[in-house]
Amino acid sequence: MKRHILFLLISLVVLSSCEDLFDPAIENLKDLDLMYDDPVFAQGVLTQSYRYLPNMYRRSSWATDDAVSNDRGSSWVKMNTGSWSASSNPVDMWVEGYGSIQYINTFLEKCDDIQWTTDPEAAELFNMRLKGEAYGLRGIFLYYLLRNHAGYGTNGELLGVPILTEFQDAHADFNVPRATFQQCVDQILSDFDKALLNLPTNYNSVGDLSEVPDKYKDMVTLSSTYNRVMGDFAKQLVDGQIVMAYRSKVTLLAASPAFQGGTNTTTWADAAVYSSNALNIIGGLSGFDEDGDIYYKNTGAIDALANGNNFAEILWRENYSTNAFGEERDNFPPSMHGNGRMNPTQNLVDAFPDVNGYPITLSSDYSSEDPFANRDPRLAQYILFNGGQIGSTTISTGSASGTEDGINALETSTRTGYYMKKRLREDVLYDTQSTASNENDKWQGKKNFKPRIRYTELFLNYAEAANEAYGPMGAAPGADYSAYDIIKAIRARAGVGAGNGDAYLESIKGNQDEMRTLIRNERRLELCFEGFRFWDLRRWAADLTETAKGYDASTGEVFDVEARTYSDYMTYGPIPYSEILKYDNLIQNRGWE
């Protein structure tokens, strides 16, 4: 038997429950063969990988035409102004991705021989669930590695990343070449298929044996045994619907223009079908959350989060924090004691239509003299502009406003004339009367969380893929809704076009090209500041060099804030330079050599 020693941060999770998600970790240096007799340690090997899942709220918006930052030393700012390289890459996923896959492969190598519990029925269920989680997580991490590092190699071939499906000990050959892009997609979908064979669609406790899903009925004689393993206590671990959602994400990536080359056979129809499969679990459009566009300020639902449950807009999330103020401290305007880090651009503001549904370039109601009047209500929900309110505070952002919130008034002031309002709880407060010496102790936080998957993303995935595969009014097999239906619902929820039956949408519903433009714009608005724009522009092979602009309310002038310096080859990210130096079988993406 092979023996391995691995330094692990093992989560203290019992096999039948999790405290909303995971408790803090402890450090252990253990022989991995102890996994066979220590199921908590064994599960810790797997659950460690959850900690390295990418954060949706990473600051990639700063590297796009949607936002800039007043943190001029940020690696994101350096990246978008010309300092992105194979050795300085804020979106490098290599170490975290392959480190997590190493944990997962270790677990998969041993899980069938682990003594999970003395109850044979529960032991078989535990092995199924945990094996399903492992395959699902391995596919998820390979997806992120593919998204961040795939591209056309210096040999002209569309390449993915190395595929590792076995634990690599100290004697392994680490000089593994990159697989093709298609081979990576096939491996991800294969892992997801294996995950779905083992996992329930969702983790829910049952009342009696008749409610146990069919695949487990012959395995248990007590409903309590099923609940012990697959019940409510497992919520927020990877389940079948989460895996199905990631099938939507990976096929959308693979069907996109930037990756339609080489041996890639993934189609828009594949992405549409996989997206609808995940959505049909909530009844398709009947499960559409009417408050989903303001999920971050749905304070009643957020405060009620407990025991791994979600509200209607959220499929998967990180663990909640009960005294959270980090987002508000970082992004409130300086007059509210924040650092004003995320500065939306005029480019993004201009993307919001008039409330009548027409783009401002086509709307007879739009006035540059009063640019924030009669606009899409999401503009005021997501972006704080001159004269706008956050909480009960009105903000003035003009350069001549005489306030610390004005353009470039302080190092923490906006550079564009705008502050981000989305993601923030407006009821978080800074106690100006506090005598605490630590500034963080003066913040009065609230319960909050970061989402991993929102249903709105899946609806938009479907709309994009269905429009390309079937046209604006067509539906994927098994779905009774079209791209048009999705966009109509999203815009109606926002209050766009309510007074005229959304005449603009009706005018383009027969035009695939114009619907594509609208779908991409709705995706930009609905998912702004959530880490999508950076990746969307790249998979669309779109222009990355649009200069970020601002607006000075004191003068009425639009001005350039920050150039975007990207070369054409930067549609694809690099393989880390350190890996290229170490392993001669690794081919770099062209342009990065």
Automatic annotation (TrEMBL):
The keyword Phosphoprotein does not apply. It is found in: Cell outer membrane. Its main location: membrane. Residues 63-205 form the SusD-like N-terminal domain. Residues 321-592 form the RagB/SusD domain. GO terms for cellular component: cell outer membrane. The keyword DNA damage does not apply. SUPFAM superfamilies: TPR-like (SSF48452). Keywords: Cell outer membrane, Membrane, Signal. InterPro entries: SusD-like_N, SusD_RagB_dom, TPR-like_helical_dom_sf. Belongs to the SusD family. This is RagB/SusD family nutrient uptake outer membrane protein.
